[in-house]
Write a structure and sequence with these properties.
The protein is α+β, with helices and mostly antiparallel strands. It has nine helices and 19 strands. The chain has an eight-stranded antiparallel beta sheet, with no helix packed on it. The radius of gyration is 19 Å and the shape is globular.
Length: about 300
Amino acid sequence: MSMKLARWRDRLTQQEDLNFLLTNRVPRLALTRFMGWYSRIDSPALTRLSVAVWRLFTDLDLSEAEPPARGYRSLRDVFTRRLKPGRRPVDPALAALVSPCDAIVGAFGPVTRGMALQAKGMDYRIAELFGDAARAAPYLDGSYLTLRLTSAMYHRFHAPADLRIQRVTHIAGDTWNVNPIALKRVERLFCRNVRAAVECALPDGTPIALVPVAAILVASLRLHALDLTLRPDHPGPHRFELGHDHARGEEMGWFEQGSTIIVFLPPGVKLSPALRTGSRLRMGEAIAHLPSADGDE
């Protein structure tokens, strides 16, 4: 991308009112359904053109990706691309919980009075996010970490530890943008959007939950444990009782564009002191440590 285009793009994205208008004050669900259809069009030429336009607005880098044997024939192929082997090493410390995805660190910290922070001055009840107070109960005195995937990032997500998926609850909703501009303006945004509460347990029974949240242009979530892609118009069922095991670092599924994953941890599991709001993480980097890593009982 030329420097001139990069400056133009940066000026556009920094105009908060315009950014919010263009990405939220539009028919969000209709545009999201259109994008789902468009991204599946099988046309290498259209895909190349779309990627060229995409690169005008993002820093899309496909150099780490392992292209399909047939090449990129649709935007969906690009969104859901795999990486070349070895590109995301997993932290070797067995007591470390690792980032499930490439992401920008958003809000993080303790769950206080049943609330988590969306953005400065904007919080939400985690019971509403989970859709059930009982499902949220293990994390009431625990902690949370918001991981935002931009549209240009690697969109697959992985198990942060050896775990068993016990339950998945798919919750219908809207498709507000989840960028920082919208998070500062739309109250309870995560609780309004399409999402899935993925409840898991570590081998010793310690609970951990991942809540992937959809956004405008992306509301489809693939979960290998279900062998199913959850879409906004998924007719049901919306709650799945499972017993599916994943090894640490194993792929769990993908988004069909950028979005957000919120990680919830119970009391006693400590977030990494190295976390910084706005910093970038790669899948496999440590985000938290089990009590044994700190000498706790």
